[in-house]
Write a structure and sequence with these properties.
11% of the residues lie in helices and 27% in strands. The protein is α+β, with helices and mostly antiparallel strands. Among the domains are: 179 residues, no CATH class; 85 residues, no CATH class; 164 residues, no CATH class. Helix 4 runs parallel beside helix 8.
């Protein structure tokens, strides 16, 4: 728009009774002038004043037919209606709203700044589809004499909206500028309330400030959850839920009740239930704001509702702040107005359990009835007021005064013995000489927000993982927690008690220490480096505080007496600028030999043995043997046969092929008697699932039977005689001759571990977590296939906890998700820390590139987090979720939980992220359920979710992939040595979104004998490329 004229006032100013004229141009994106007869529609309206919009001139829809063309090619339109003396009624006006909500219908127009808006669009036909191309424009002008130009306060920038929405649009793509939206969504404006549609939507405001708050917080609104306030101002949790609904185009009922703001840490909290799935047990993650005083007085059901409310939107800066952080955009000029200019209307948009005519009680404070907005800032103003807006909406995770921070910096990856320090796989004795696979040694530092060194024992959870190659990441060393955060009990252990009060001095000795009881109240302290401290005794209260080699701790007795050789272990890691640590791995149930009854000496297969991390078992009994109905391969998770013949139950230990060279032991995780896909009875082909993968191949007919593995006591029944060589010496007379000896232990993670002493190393990839046969080599799962040369990666991540009171103050750290406290415990999470290295004959590092960068995720999510807010950042996620074999939480891990099996549910991001962001647009959205790892309420089915990018939603591939071309054709995942089994990469990538029966049938028809032919039509340069099919006009 160029100008507004037609006024009768001084200098042509607009007055009441005048017919404003607007001069404007219409141009295409390339700058060409568009004649008005090429427009399908064009309309204009006026609202104002800019400090609080009301309707002034109603929408006139003949702009494209009644505009006059000027000599310079511009157009001028004259409003048919004259400027009225009073404000018009807002849209769909009823008595539900009035002056208290800012409505000024019938009041005399004041002199001031008003806004004229134009909307126009043209229709085009592209490939037989009509596409609407629209444009909006606004122009501020003056009405009345003596007024000065006062633009509308810039509370939010459109660029902020477009961080998630790409190109904001609404109402059939006709309206697409934030400044234009405000001209209709004025104070007092209401939904259409079509009474023939679900009884209508009476009293639903579409005032922009209120509506936007409610839309972005819908799932957490007290009204939606059935939470209200009684006459005394106290919350009640049994009100009738009120869905947040509006009437859309074509009188379609739109229910927004499931919408949540995607900004983390508030977003995507899992609300946990007990194993039966009936009772709420707490929120998993950083999501909820601090609990209120009295939280512990609520019932579990009430706590669930309370947690959901407190998980609502608090990231005000996402909309009101700088749209791109350190980027070139700037914050809105009036973005902080929500902190100082407070109204009941704005606050009540989210806090809709408040009845402003009554007292309101929350968190130990009482607010009297508020007849107007005059007193709001007395309590909710600056930081010196009792409940300031800024700090009340600042999530503790985002508050640097509360969140201590934790950040890794990897400086080196070592351990490789190949040329140039490259890593190599193990070499078996034949042709020999035997050499172990290389370990992965990581040098890193870890600091807090202030830059101070963090002791590893202060981390609540610290994990490491090795994956590769970057072309198709597989598991080399699975996730493991490498260090203790406190003393742990050995197995077996008799007494009742614990060790706390742990303090590690700056000069403490790095070693493993053991507290070894020599009687009910006496103990020694022994170190792997320091001389022992003997003869310690619990006092009359059952406690003893000890300082040993720089470590101070308190031993406490509670319950049963300690037994001789009850042991606590602790691995001391003194605080340092830098730590060097070998990525460890845990080996379970390795058979090391057969006892003779004497002082046998055995060695574990993989070195070293971490002293204190071993459990030595004697097999003391076996059950009746059944026969496997089919052969199984190493790396598999189950055997097939008649479950009744095996005599096994969940959590039993089983032995396969007892007495042979491939004898192995496993824990039963699930006994499956029906097909997970069809529900059909499996007959005599039941599946016995194990919690760890098989070590060996086993033939059809292999014996499977229950095994009793009895843990033996270190010190009296065996000793670790040399941890470096993995040597364990049995005490004569403590093991029965002929019984197998089995050891679980920790050792260095390597490129190739041995399954047992005397066996060749297993130079193959480990299965991903939750692995099954549903996702196999055709998906790119290389479980039990040979290591491939290339670029590999080690990843580190951790979190530490901090506890906040209802007053948003730090207090003594409590257990995470503790149930019996009004305090709330949060997790400070490390950002991604990965480093790549070379394996085999590879010469050049080639990092994986899928999306533009992890920062793309944060444009919507703020600070990407997952798994109970224990993982942070896309680059951390892909340590696990880039692996094709990564599957949903399986029943063999969670057999006692109420959640059902989810066969074939891939957690590979190629599938998972497409499905999650496709949401309700999936043809089978209602059936897409995953269990995840927390097993409360199963993870969101996303049937109500929708990718917010406009236009196109999930069709906008570049929203996430950016400049990366990986989305244009899925990369191959073929293993170079797995001939005859090509991967079906199109099936997974395309089928993740295109999940209808028709699409699935089409994909199947183009896959013959396991070979996909999709690239013939959809490959780069072909007729129906992925890029063309996802093109957004």
């Amino acid at each position: 728009m160029l100008s507004v004229s037609g006024g009768s006032g001084p200098s042509g100013g607009i007055r009441i009774g005048d017919h404003p004229k607007v001069t404007f141009t219409v141009k295409t994106r390339d700058g060409r002038t568009m004649p008005p007869d090429q427009l399908a529609a064009a309309s204009a309206l006026v609202s104002g004043p800019t400090r609080g919009y009301q309707r002034v001139l109603k929408l006139e829809s003949d702009v494209h037919t009644k505009s006059v063309q000027n000599a310079d090619g511009s157009l001028t339109y004259t409003f048919e209606a004259a400027v009225p003396a009073a404000y018009e009624a807002p849209y769909n006006d009823t008595s539900a709203f009035g002056p208290d909500e800012g409505e000024r219908q019938g009041e005399a127009l004041e002199a001031g700044t008003y806004t004229l808006g134009i909307e126009a669009y043209a229709n085009y036909s592209i490939r037989g589809t009509t596409v609407r191309d629209s444009g909006n424009s606004t122009f501020d002008f003056l009405i009345g004499d003596g007024a000065t130009l006062e633009p509308h306060p810039e509370v939010v920038k459109e660029e902020s909206c477009n961080q998630c929405h790409s190109s904001l649009e609404a109402h059939g793509s006709i309206r697409n500028e934030l400044s234009y939206c405000l001209l209709c969504h004025t104070a007092g404006a209401e939904d259409r309330n079509v009474t023939t549609v679900a009884g209508g939507t009476p009293g639903v405001t579409v005032d922009f400030g209120v509506m936007i708050h409610r839309l972005h917080n819908a799932a957490h609104l007290p009204s939606v959850l059935g939470v209200a306030t009684d006459s005394s101002g106290n919350r009640v949790y049994d009100a009738t839920p009120q869905p947040y609904e509006m009437i859309g185009f074509g009188d379609r009922l739109l229910d927004f009740s499931e919408l949540s703001f995607p900004v983390m840490p508030s977003a995507y909290v899992s609300y946990l239930l007990d194993t039966a799935g009936t009772t709420y047990t707490g929120a998993a993650g950083n999501g909820p704001m601090p609990r209120n005083v009295g939280f512990t007085l609520l019932t579990p059901a009430q706590r669930l509702l309370d947690d959901k409310i407190r998980t609502g939107t608090v990231a005000c800066e996402k909309c009101h702040g700088d749209p791109d952080g350190s980027g070139p955009l700037t914050a809105p000029a009036a973005g902080q107005r929500h902190l100082t200019e407070l109204t009941r209307k704005s606050c009540g948009s989210c806090h809709d359990d408040i009845d402003w005519t009554k007292t309101y009680v929350a968190n130990g404070l009482t607010m009297p009835a508020q007849p107007n907005d005059n007193a709001c800032t007395l309590c909710h103003g600056s930081d010196s007021t009792p409940v300031p807006i800024a700090t009340s909406h600042l999530h503790p995770y985002s508050d640097p005064a509360l969140n201590p921070g934790v950040e890794f910096a990897i400086s080196a990856v070592g351990g490789g013995t190949g040329p140039g320090g490259k890593h190599r796989k193990a070499v078996p004795a034949v042709p020999g000489p035997e050499t172990p696979g290389d370990p992965v040694v990581v040098t890193f530092g870890v600091k807090d927000r202030a830059g101070a060194n963090v002791n590893l024992q202060k981390l609540t959870r610290f994990q490491m993982m090795v994956t590769g190659p970057s072309t198709n990441p597989q598991v080399v060393v699975n996730t493991v927690i490498p260090n203790d955060t406190g003393f742990r009990k050995a197995s077996p252990f008799t007494g009742g008690g614990s060790i706390g009060g742990l303090s590690i001095a700056a000069g403490a000795t790095a070693q493993t220490i053991a507290v070894v009881f020599t009687g009910a109240t006496t103990f020694d302290v022994r170190g792997s480096v320091s001389a022992p401290l003997a003869g310690q005794t619990l006092d009359g209260t059952g406690k003893a505080t000890v300082t040993y080699a720089g470590v101070t701790f308190t031993v406490s007795k509670s319950g049963a007496d300690f037994a001789n050789e009850d042991r606590f272990y602790f691995e001391v890691v003194p605080t340092a600028d830098s730590y060097t640590m070998t990525v460890p791995t845990d080996v379970t149930f390795e058979r090391v030999g057969t006892a003779t009854g004497g002082g046998d000496v055995f060695k574990v297969a993989n070195l070293p043995l971490y002293w204190g991390r071993q459990v030595v078992f004697e097999r003391t009994a076996t059950g009746a043997a059944g026969a496997a109905a089919s052969a199984v391969k190493a790396g598999g998770r189950f055997v097939v046969g008649d479950a009744s013949s095996f005599g096994l139950a969940v959590n039993d230990r089983a032995v396969i092929e007892s007495g042979t060279g491939t004898e192995e032991y496993l824990t039963v995780g699930r006994i499956q008697t029906t097909d997970d896909w069809t529900g059909a009875d499996l007959g005599t082909n039941d599946r016995i699932w194990f919690t760890t993968p098989l070590r060996y191949d086993h033939p059809s007919g292999a014996t499977v039977q229950k095994a009793t593995l009895t843990a033996r006591r270190e010190g009296t029944q065996y000793v670790v005689s040399d941890s470096a060589t993995g040597e364990i010496t049995l005490t004569a007379g403590q093991f029965t001759s002929g019984n197998p000896v089995v050891v679980s232990y920790r050792t260095h993670g390597r490129f190739g571990l041995k399954p047992a002493p005397g066996k060749d190393p297993f130079n193959k990839y480990s299965p991903a977590a939750a692995d099954s046969e549903d996702i196999n080599v055709t998906w790119g799962d290389w479980n039990a296939l040979d290591f491939v040369d290339g670029t590999y990666q080690v990843g580190l991540w951790a979190h530490r906890e901090f506890t906040v009171t209802p007053a948003h103050a730090l207090t003594t750290t409590e257990a995470w998700n503790t149930w019996n406290s009004d305090n709330t415990t949060y997790r400070s999470i490390s950002p991604p820390a990965n480093m790549t290295f070379l394996f085999g004959s590879a010469t050049t590092l080639a990092p994986r590139q899928i999306i533009a960068s992890g920062a793309v995720c944060d444009t919507c999510h703020g600070d990407l987090q997952a798994h109970g807010n224990g993982r942070r950042g896309f680059e951390t996620c892909i340590n696990c979720h880039a692996s094709p074999g990564m599957e949903d939480g399986p029943k063999y891990t969670f057999s006692s939980w109420y959640v059902g099996p989810t066969p074939g549910a891939s957690m590979d991001f190629r599938s998972l992220l497409h499905k999650v962001h496709m949401g309700k647009e999936l043809a089978k959205a209602e059936s897409y359920v995953v269990n995840g790892v927390f097993l409360g309420i199963p993870y969101e089915v996303h049937a109500e979710g929708e990718f917010p990018s406009m236009p196109g939603a999930a069709k906008n591939c570049t929203k996430c992939h950016g400049n990366s071309s990986s989305w244009k054709e899925p990369a191959t995942r073929d293993h170079p040595l797995a001939s005859g089994t090509p991967t079906q990469v199109w099936t997974e990538a395309c089928g993740s979104c295109h999940d209808s029966d028709e699409a699935t049938a089409h994909i199947g028809s183009q896959t013959s004998n396991g070979v996909e032919t999709c690239q013939i039509c959809h490959g780069i340069g072909r007729e129906f490329t992925v890029e063309a099919s996802h093109h957004i006009p």
